[in-house]
Design brief:
It contains six helices and two strands. Strands 1-2 form a two-stranded antiparallel ribbon. With about 150 residues, it is an all-alpha fold.
Length: about 150
Amino acid sequence: MTGGPMHPEVTTGSSSGGYRIGDLARATATRVETIRWYERQGLLPEPSRSPGNYRCYGEAGLSRLSFIRRARALGFSLGQVRTLLGLADDRGADCGSVDVLAADHLAEIDRKIADLTALRRELSDLLTTCKGGTIAGCRIINALAPHR
């Protein structure tokens, strides 16, 4: 049996058509331990169990884990992912809350880029002023040392 047209490479581990945790992990490129952790964090609901006591995820579990993975890949924090999942679960709600959350996240990304750009510039300046020589006269080591 296959996981459906979106995930034909995934074989299911039960006759009910669900995904065992290993199948879900392969389908979403997620480690099994991470899936279990998401469950403990309440991001993924506890799945049903097969008669052999294997976790059994349906298409909803696959979709939800894919959503989590994509949101994490975009840099959203776990708290933000939790909020996004709550909003996504209320299909009739206004998406303004999502816009605000995404705009806040984008502003944070812009702050990080500015910080990294400044760090890059500072390190580049240190490298261009380095003329070799001994460690005692090394501009980089001196810049890293505490000022006395």
